[in-house]
Amino acid sequence: MTSLLQSDHRYRYLDAFIILFVTVLLVSNIVAAKFFALGPLRVSAAQILFPITYIFGDIFTEVYGYAASRRAIWYGFFASFILVGLTYIAVIIPPAPEYRDEAAFATIFKPVGRIVLASLLAYWCGEFANSFTLAKLKLMTKGRYLWTRTIGSTVVGQAVDTTVVMFAAFYGTRPTSVILKLILAGYLIKVIYETLMTPVTYWIVNFLKRTEHVDYFDYDTNFSPFATGEKA
């Protein structure tokens, strides 16, 4: 298997997985307003889907390398930004006289500025932390023990994501003790979720490595989130 992503190489599944990754991210943003009970906990419907984006991040980095994951993260970031902008415009446009569902539409789609910005910032920080950790662990383990990378990157990435989103969204409006409880509950749910999905991640990674004939190691990669190019 090659350890380099050639600029003229066309992978069979990479674009499809990036599209699916962005789709899952956008849908999780749309359903985030719905909460359900899980025993004493209250969980956003987004947490059914959003942790899957970290699994995608693991797959991109493990198979295709950090540069591919970085590209997917930026696509997801800009797609989320467009979603927020367009839904806001759709809400503020005056409805037709016969349209009777404006209040319900606004309840679901009217973004709360601070929470939206917090979510975008947390996604950006968490996804890059996840991919960076996995890439470095792959070098440290010389490509062995995939489970240490998928779980280890999740532990780091979700810690960054959950902490950033809760403090950015609620600091100054909620007691710190409440914010810490929200962080702990959200973090544990996400880590357990993704740990249980490890067998699925294993199957997809092994399938892609076998069919795409690639197993990327980020020896000379520029890990800056803003770098461009295949080797950047």
How does this structure look, described?
- This protein has 232 residues and is mainly α.
- The chain has helices at 14-30, 46-64, 66-92, 102-109, 113-140, 146-170, 176-196, 198-212; strands spanning 35-38, 41-44.
- A hairpin with a 2-residue loop joins strand 1 and strand 2.
- The longest helix has 28 residues, at 113-140.
- The relative contact order is 0.17.
Index terms:
Arp2/3 complex 21 kDa subunit ARPC3; 69% helix; two-stranded antiparallel sheet; disordered N terminus; 232 residues
Note the topology:
Blueprint: H1 14-30, E1 35-38, E2 41-44, H2 46-64, H3 66-92, H4 102-109, H5 113-140, H6 146-170, H7 176-196, H8 198-212
Antiparallel strand pairs: 1-2
Helix pairs in contact: 1-2, 1-3, 2-3, 2-5, 2-6, 2-7, 2-8, 3-4, 3-5, 5-6, 6-7
What's the main sheet like? 2 strands, antiparallel
Could you give the count of β-strands? 2
Biggest sheet, strands in spatial order?
1-2
CATH topology: Arp2/3 complex 21 kDa subunit ARPC3
Number of helices: 8
Q: Work out the oligomeric state of the chains in this entry.
A: single chain
- Poorly predicted ranges: 1-8
The CATH class name reads Mainly Alpha
Please indicate the percent range of residues in DSSP E strands (runs of 2 or more): under 5%
Radius of gyration: 19 Å
Helicity, as a percent range: 55-70%
Assigned CATH architecture: Orthogonal Bundle
What is the end-to-end distance? Answer: 21 Å
Task: Output the structural class.
Answer: mainly alpha
Compute the number of structural domains. 1
Shape: globular
Arithmetic mean of pLDDT: 88
Order of helices and strands: HEEHHHHHHH
